[in-house]
Amino acid sequence: SENSLEYLLSIGNICRSPIAEAVFRKLVTDEKLEHKWRTDSAAVSDWNVGRFPDSRALSCLRNHGIETAHKARQITKEDFQTFDHILCMDESNLRDLNRKSNQVKDCKAKIELLGTYDPQKQLIIEDPYYGNEKDFETVYEQCLRCCKAFLEKYH
C-alpha cells in the first residue's frame, strides 16, 4: 500500500532494534522507497529511554556505511494503532507486545518476529549486549537478511 509502515522493536532499544531500523531505512532509501515507509524502533521497557544506541551497535553500523541518530523510546498505544507492522526480536518481546496490544482498542499492527522473514530460518535475533563485536555483526547480518526479505514481500 502507498503508506505502508514498518516498525522494529526490542527490549531496551539500544542494540538490536536500532540496527534493524537503520538497516531497513538504508534498504528503502537505496530502493528509492522512503516515501512509502515510516520506520522507527522502540522499547517494550522504559530502561533506556533517551539514550543513544550501544557504541558497539553504532560502530558495527558504521563499518557497513550506515549512520543512525536514533534515541531510545518506549512503545506507545498510538504505535499499535498507526503502524502496520511491529517486528520484534525474540519470544519475550513477542509476549510483551501481544499483552500490550490486547489493552489497545483498534490495534491494527501485525505483531511478529522479524526472524520469521529470515531465509536462513534463524527465528530469534539474540541480544548481543553481553557479547562482543562478533555478536553485533551476527545481529547485523540477521537484520539485513530479514529486512530484505520483509521488503521484498511487502514492497
Structure description:
The protein has helices spanning 16-30, 55-63, 77-82, 91-101, 133-154; strands at 5-10, 38-43, 85-88, 110-113. The chain has 155 residues and is of the alpha/beta class. The chain has one domain (5-152): Response regulator (Rossmann fold). The chain has a two-stranded parallel ribbon with strand order 1-2. A two-stranded parallel sheet has the order 3-4. Helix 1 links the parallel strand 1 (5-10) and strand 2 (38-43). Helix 1 (16-30) crosses helix 5 and helix 2 (55-63) packs across helix 5. The longest helix has 22 residues, at 133-154. The model has no long low-confidence stretch (mean pLDDT 92). It is an enzyme of class 3 (hydrolase). One of its GO terms (molecular function) is non-membrane spanning protein tyrosine phosphatase activity. It holds the Pfam family LMWPc.
List the helices and strands and how they pair.
Layout: E1 5-10, H1 16-30, E2 38-43, H2 55-63, H3 77-82, E3 85-88, H4 91-101, E4 110-113, H5 133-154
Helix pairs in contact: 1-5, 2-5
Main location: cytoplasm
Domain Phosphotyrosine protein phosphatase I: 7-153
Subcellular location: Cytoplasm
